[in-house]
Design brief:
The complex is a heterooctamer, with two copies of chain A, two copies of chain B, two copies of chain C and two copies of chain D. Chain C is mainly β. Chain C has two helices and five strands; from the N terminus they run E-E-H-E-E-H-E. Chain C has one domain: Alpha-Beta Plaits (2-Layer Sandwich). The radius of gyration of chain C is 17 Å and the shape is elongated. Chain D is an alpha/beta fold. The model of chain D has no long low-confidence stretch (mean pLDDT 97). Classes of the chains: A alpha/beta, B alpha/beta, C mainly beta, D alpha/beta. At the B-E interface, helix 4, helix 5, helix 9, helix 12 and strand 15 of B face helix 4, helix 5, helix 9, helix 12 and strand 15 of E. Bound molecules: thiamine diphosphate (2 copies) and iron/sulfur cluster (SF4) (4 copies). One iron/sulfur cluster binds next to helix 2 of chain C.
């Protein structure tokens, strides 16, 4: 029994860079939750993404149908795929009080806000598995693994969803990545 | 029935495939592009038995599917914004040629400046042309309506083309759970292609030369209007049958949420109706009894159905996501004129909002609703029937 | 609604769709059957299909349908033996 | 093939609405003779829209889709694709004026050509917008009067055959209403090939060019004899000059160009200088096509 | 002032010349063609100092004059029917670019079947785009309004393009006496070209890139509507000034004929208003006190002006020469919705007539008027607010 | 001309919205270097619409009219005509992608060319619709993957330079982002001529062609070295091969075409047979242009 | 004082063939009447004319402004430029009782209706003057001359109008033609 | 309404219109001034105008504006002396 079962609506924001798969991460998150019997929507920040530029994606998870279609203005959860963008983008913008932040980071980041902080070294996982495209570690799916643990989505649902969305070797590598991240994610406590 | 999480655009692609469309021709434009891409992928992977004509413009896209349809097969196209404007001549042409075909319109605002976000100027600008126009609120509705439109447009009482509108990004690129029907279900629902005439080799039938009898020609045009009138019944029948097959009945031309006991109504079309639903729940908590009347069909305009529901209410707010500049919002115009024609006096406020993609959510609707109730109770009517939101 | 419904913009081929276009004429082709060698060239070029030919012993017998002949004079101008003469009708 | 071999069924019916001496009805008769009941015609706005006469009759006896001005090749490709899916066999022909071909409809044409859509496009070239009353098109020749070029067009005729050859389509041919057998053979050849076929039919119009309606064929023939118009075929980038034009490879056998120009009212006020310019352009064109036929 | 007998199309050409237009680009289409031909003749004979761009399509025609106007000169185009549809994208574009320019639209119905006669589907189909739209009743009005539109569209309170509509053949090709003003009069009336911005070499001004602030963009769109609102005053001023200069004052947005003491009104736009005038004279002879309210400006829609005049009448017949298929006639929609918005309950009947060029004359209007009075007095309202004329 | 002679003023500003390694910004920088403050740019929808970044700022420092996709050459001609009337001196440049040039906007382009409108049209050819996410255009080469040709495009790249030469305009040239000085010289030459000038700039796009952004210039150079793209100029129908391509008139000096193809993700699944077909087409193209340069 | 001054509205129909100038005839008729202080409108039958095909044009003359814009359904006056079309077209269709008919004819035509009939040999006049284009005698302006006499329009106004509309030799020849027809037209009486 | 009115769709050039695009980078060009021969080729090709050159005694002195350099690596790939190296920043 995790967060997802406790709240009627969870709003999430994913931060990454163009080409890093933040939208796919949001999609798989929703798809997994749906497999667990929840409802969800996911959508990109509607802009012209360029490879490498900071981008955001959004998701909403809920017990019943999600009615609102507007932008997520005050997320409950923020997922940071790429910690380096934190020096350019205020990833905490609008985050609810005592909100949850899941960061891809090898170390404990320095955060001057009261949040529930989780980290996982998704980059390490990706590099270990050889999940690299054009020099970029592919961390997005690993982050979904970590996030699912935080939210209380069943890991099996996540793995099913990955296998459904991807195929072949990419699917299997990402399944492994998600599993590892699921287990390696750790809570750091307020910053 | 499989439950998948799909974007609105992928719902269109699935619907097209399930409807056993034979010819697709479309031209890329953000945010419609992923429809064409998905269909291309389905075709190239052998997943769909469709012939794609990869044209050089939208004018040609609609022309190509028009040719295919006239020649006797089910055909489909999709576009958005400037693409729709660029094919405008053919939009008129296909309706008056009485050729059934279906188009998805991912509603997007019009430039300049270049802007890819949603509003409804593009699709509402086609409301004179004789096409059926249905607006979706959810991805499920996108999928369902696309399939149904083939059945409705190919009904001999109708024989007109139809378009389904889905909001840029907030449907087109948003994933949500969707029940995708089995092929057999769709097959049992959709009859073989029917159309009023077919151009064939060896059969000298001539379409479109100059009329000698202008009154007859005037009647042809009027029959486009009448056929839209006749389609109201077809829509109802088809919606009910689909409801029986799938459990999803939308109410035909319009859909209601908490209308029965409401004093006030929000009336609007498209994806933002979801936020209206949320808003009226809150408004009721605040003591204002609102309901939502979702206009599913823009054409035929369901004046009679709306009036049935709105009669006796204390006030109505029509939310338009476009404006007929120099007059008012198009849904308001159709609706208020209809009410006038029936001598019904209910205060109606036209709020034009969400232009150029400006985000509007349930909180905004709550504000609009509250303001409206106050205005009506103070003034006894509306002070100014047309308002831009947010007010300056 | 189907083919035959008058509210559809459909037509069928019809001789004389524009009326008796012979009335447009102000000159008229007259064929001198003596000079005519039955080559059929006038038939080939007549823009209005108003010259009819009949095969008679390996030669074409040529006849003009004056109800529709517009009097353009193309037949006269292409006839290799000048067997066709345009005669004023004004 | 001789005249005797041609079918006699009428596809252009007597009593249609064309002007006397119309080159378009001539051409349509040849399309009927060449393809007969195998053809569906797609016809954009132009004189042929009028020639059909008034609904509910028609002076043309083909299956016809009249279509919007700029849409024809796309409509035709749609028809062709559908017919192939339905397993119905025949030839889809776009019959389009010079305006519909080379101006407003040019992107549509070029697009269908690039996709190698399985249709025949016939450009019936009367060198102006005749249906709307003789306005300049891009295929109006230099120096010609029209109602939008009162002092003669200042630009040269766009070279559509060459442009279409540059599209690398399977078949490009030129034809003339003065040489029906040549045109009919080219139509039949095109109909036997798969992909996009372009035939450009030279069609002198008595109304727009200001000559007596009896002279339609003469005028068309003069265009060949002066070398102003060249009958040819191009397959895979290689040009072959067609028999009627072969004698005029030898420039000395060509009639002087003025003989063609002076017969037409539209060139009444052309200057000698312009005539020389036109002569030069004709020579250049011949030299280009001869290069490409080598 | 010279009195000439001119066709409506030649009136346009004269007006363009007198307005010292610098660039004209247009594409031929029946029945607009004689405008281009006349202008070409004027240019080629040295009679007018205009540069003509002889484009290959209407999309390019409007694009070319848009380019010229953006670069800083007065520019003009003209079209009709399918030509207008083909340039539809640019119609939207030019309004939102806020570039003043003028277009004449010879109103013609839309195919298939091909048909060159008048109705108003083409021009009414542009009523959302942000253009000013004025409809002429006479050739004199064609000439006057074309000149005035340059002044109005170039007014800093407006800065929008404008179109003048004239009915195919019954104005465009009909000659009647027209007073053509002297060049000096027009020169004194029309100021130097004004426009909100000009693209210049060496000055890096960028028009039309993607907005970052969607609310600001929404406000840009709303300002197109507001500018149309502001234009009502400009139109009035300009019409009065022209009246002073020439003796021809039309009443600004609308013109009235025997409205004051009327019980009933005919409301309509375009050339057939002349027959309405005749009809009401006969109707009055028959004892029915009718008046005619001519809607000169379709955009901005003169709801307030119409209401001022119609208030207190026993009934109104709105005659539309086009229909927004699946709803009603566009003038009716604008008008009835406006009345609804102001809580005005007058029986309004929408008669859609003259479609596809079907000839309607004063006798028809007499019939319509008579029927209407009977219907209103029997029913107390209208039985069916939308009717096709002639009834089947 | 050497690098040292080039002006340093910035027309493409740092911090614009282009992808890393973008060939369009490269090309725009050369337009700035060639024409500087003399240019007004008319830009139809395409990547360059995005590259400018968000209102009220702009990453490009030219006077720019962004225009509807199919309208650019007509708008540009309108601007040019007006500026001439106003007596203001400068160069009006259409900067259009391959889609805007050869597909939807082709009739507009061709019309302006036929009228000999006084503008320069630069086609920045990245061989697909990149702005909307890599869809096929008529200038996409045979065999290339795009999101509308998952199994590779089946038709050949439309030959725009040849087609524009067939229009008989005063100046046609091809260029490449790998040879900036050549491009700049051609732009300046075009700017010095009156009438319609067409320059076709080959612009490899890392995003759409699937190669590392550092390789943009390399890829462009390989196109020249394999003979897939030929730098040339054509004036009055006569072709001159430009210096960077001259060595490759000699086929034996060309690199094998696979060296170019295999470097790009979009050709990953191309068959050997198709490669041979492409080779044949390249040879044919060379033979055509060599004929026309004689 | 002719007909034009007596009636408040005169409706006219001109019959000819495409290319014969029926529209111009109607236009000059109106233009001349306007010079005499009347109002008038003229318009073609709105169809696609082809050279040689029967066509019609219309005019209305009136003391005050002509309000109606509809087709002329019941003309007061019919003008026939080319008598040969009378075997194909019913030129009397809708003609008012005791209506006026002006025909270009060398002889008295056989008419089985009660009309006021006028004839003039306009073809002869045209041929005499060499007013011939591509084999066709140009009779339209001569017919206006004849008509003006019948209606009571001043000949000077007609001549002014011709000179204004045409130029050079064509103007002068047509002026002569109109003058001759004005003087030669003769009333035949009911048919 | 005139230039400057916010309701007009007009923009003006601005450095950094898309923000500090240096943040897009995951690798960084480092110039080895020892190897650099000052030819200016990197300046010529840099797609983003983020290489600035200064004439120093007939040679170019080259400097990268890292605030905006997107790290594409074009400069490194065109440098004839391999004086530019792309260094990972991930
Ligand atoms: C979009 C559009 N623009 C203009 C027209 C008007 N129009 C109809 S036919 C025609 C000219 C046709 O010229 P061409 O193609 O050369 O054929 P022709 O009449 O000479 O046979 C024009 C301009 C139209 N129907 N549609
Ligand atoms: C009428 C219309 N159709 C479609 C679009 C969508 N659209 C915008 S840019 C573009 C592709 C541009 O491709 P190209 O011209 O090759 O330029 P690139 O993006 O590659 O620079 C498309 C299809 C549009 N803006 N307008
Ligand atoms: S005159 Fe013309 S229409 Fe008559 S038969 Fe001869 S060619 Fe045919
Ligand atoms: S104008 Fe010319 S092409 Fe058109 S119908 Fe008449 S003769 Fe034929
Ligand atoms: S997609 Fe290609 S052409 Fe477009 S901005 Fe990116 S790199 Fe440049
Ligand atoms: S990496 Fe790219 S953007 Fe950065 S300096 Fe080098 S070429 Fe310029």
């Amino acid at each position: 029994m995790g967060l997802i079962a406790e709240r009627s609506l969870i709003e999430l924001r994913f931060h990454g860079r163009g080409g890093q798969g933040a939208v796919t991460a949001a999609h798989i998150t929703v798809d997994s939750a749906v497999r667990d019997g929840f409802w969800g929507t996911a959508f990109p920040f509607f802009g012209a993404e360029r490879r490498g530029a900071p981008v955001a994606a959004f998701a909403r998870l809920s017990r019943g149908r999600v009615m609102t279609r507007s932008m997520v203005r005050n997320p409950d959860v923020v997922v940071v795929l790429d910690p380096s963008i934190m020096s350019y983008v205020n990833v905490f913008d609008g985050l609810k009080d005592r909100g949850i932040v899941v960061i891809n980071s090898p170390t404990r980041p320095n955060i001057s806000r009261e949040v529930k902080l989780y980290t996982v070294n998704a980059t390490r996982i990706a590099l270990d598995l050889g999940l690299v495209l054009a020099g970029w570690p592919l961390v997005n799916i690993a982050m979904v693994g970590a996030l699912s643990r935080v939210l209380g989505i069943r890991l099996d649902s996540v793995l099913e969803s990955i296998r459904n969305m991807l195929s072949g070797r990419m699917a299997e590598l990402n399944v492994t990545a998600a599993e590892r991240a699921y287990h390696e994610v750790s809570e750091i406590g307020g910053g | 029935m499989v439950k998948l999480t799909l974007t609105g655009n992928h719902c269109v692609a699935y619907a097209v495939k399930l409807s056993r469309v034979k010819v697709v021709s479309a031209y890329p434009i953000t945010p419609q592009t992923t429809i064409v891409e998905k269909l291309s992928e389905m075709v190239d992977s052998g997943d769909a038995d469709i012939k794609m004509i990869r044209v050089e413009s939208e004018h040609s896209a609609l022309s190509a599917v028009y040719g295919a349809a006239t020649a006797g097969v089910r055909a489909f196209t999709a576009t958005s914004s400037h693409g729709l404007l660029y094919m405008h001549e053919m939009v008129w042409w296909t309706a008056q040629a009485r050729v059934p075909l279906v188009m998805a319109v991912v509603t997007r605002t019009i430039g300049p400046p270049w802007n890819i976000w949603t509003d409804h100027h593009d699709i509402m600008g086609q409301r004179d042309t004789g096409w059926l126009i249905v607006m979706a609120e959810t991805n499920q509705e996108v999928l369902d309506e696309t399939i149904k439109l083939f059945r409705i447009t190919e009904d001999p009482r109708v024989f007109l083309p139809g378009m389904v509108g889905l909001d840029a990004f907030i449907l087109s690129h948003t994933v949500e759970p969707v029940e995708v029907p089995e092929q057999e279900v769709v097959d049992s629902f959709l009859p073989e292609r029917r159309q009023p005439y077919t151009i064939r080799f060896g059969d000298p039938l001539i379409m479109g030369n100059i009329p000698s009898d202008l009154l007859l020609n005037a009647k042809m045009r009027w029959d486009v209007h009448e056929a839209l009138g006749r389609s109201t019944q077809v829509i109802d029948e088809v919606d009910r049958e689909w409801g029986k097959l799938t459990g999803r009945y939308y109410g035909g031309l319009v859909e209601c949420y908490r209308c029965e006991d409401a004093d006030f109504l929000f009336i609007g079309a498209g994806a933002w109706v979801g936020d209206m639903r949320l808003a009226i729940d809150k408004l009721r908590d605040m003591g204002y009894r609102f309901g939502v009347l979702k206009v599913r069909y823009i054409r035929p305009f369901p004046g009679a159905r709306i009036l049935e529901i709105a009669r006796g209410k204390k006030g109505v707010v029509v939310l338009d996501r476009s404006i007929s500049a120099g007059s008012a919002g198009p849904i308001f115009l159709d609706l208020a004129a209809y009410f006038q024609g029936k001598n019904v006096t209910i205060p109606i406020k036209n709020v034009v909002a969400g232009l150029a993609g400006f985000d509007v959510n349930y909180e905004d609707f709550v504000k609009i609703g509250e303001r409206f109730v106050n205005e009506v109770s103070e003034v006894g009517w509306v002070e100014n029937h047309l308002e831009f939101y947010p007010l300056r | 609604m189907e083919v035959g419904n008058p509210l559809l913009p459909l037509s069928r081929p019809k001789i004389g769709v524009q009326g008796a276009t012979g009335s447009w004429r102000f000159r008229k082709p007259e064929i001198d059957q003596g000079k005519c060698i039955g080559c059929g060239i006038c038939w080939l070029y007549c823009p209005d299909s108003v010259i009819d030919v009949e095969d008679v012993g390996g030669r074409f017998k040529v006849r003009v349908d004056y109800v529709y002949c517009k009097g353009c004079g193309v037949c006269a101008s292409v006839c290799p033996t000048k067997a066709i003469r345009m005669v004023s009708e004004v | 093939m001789t005249i005797r071999d041609l079918p006699r069924e009428k596809y252009v019916l007597p009593g249609n609405a064309a002007c006397p001496g119309c080159p378009e009805t001539m051409g349509l008769r040849y399309v009927g003779m060449a393809l007969g009941r195998r053809a569906i015609l797609v016809i954009p706005a132009g004189c042929t829209s009028i020639i059909q006469g008034l609904h509910p009759g028609s002076g043309l006896s083909f299956p016809i889709i009249n279509v919007a001005f700029a849409s024809s090749d796309a409509v035709a490709e749609g028809v062709a694709v559908a017919k192939e899916l339905l397993g119905e066999d025949g030839v889809v022909v776009v019959w389009a004026g010079d305006g519909a071909t080379a101006d407003i409809g040019f992107a549509t044409l070029s697009g269908a050509a690039e996709r190698n859509g399985n249709i025949i496009h016939v450009c019936v070239d009367n060198e102006a917008y005749m249906n709307t009353g003789i306005q300049r098109s891009s295929l109006t020749p230099k120096g010609a009067w029209t109602t939008t070029t009162w002092r003669g067009k200042t630009e040269s005729k766009k070279n559509m055959p060459l442009i279409m050859m540059s599209h690398g389509i399977p078949y490009v041919a030129t034809a003339s209403v003065a040489y029906p057998l040549d045109f009919i053979e080219k139509l039949r050849k095109a109909a036997s090939m798969r992909g996009f076929k372009y035939i450009h039919l030279h069609a002198p119009c008595p109304v727009g060019w200001r000559f007596d309606p009896s002279e339609t064929v003469e005028m068309a023939r003069l265009a060949i004899e002066t070398g102003m118009w060249v009958l040819l075929e191009a397959e895979k980038g290689k040009i072959t000059i067609s028999p009627p034009s072969r004698p005029y490879i030898d420039k000395s056998r060509r009639k002087p160009i003025v003989e063609y120009l002076k017969r037409q009212g539209r060139f009444r006020e052309i200057s000698e200088e312009l005539v020389r310019e036109i002569e030069k352009e004709v020579d250049e064109y011949w030299s280009t096509i001869l290069k490409l036929s080598s």
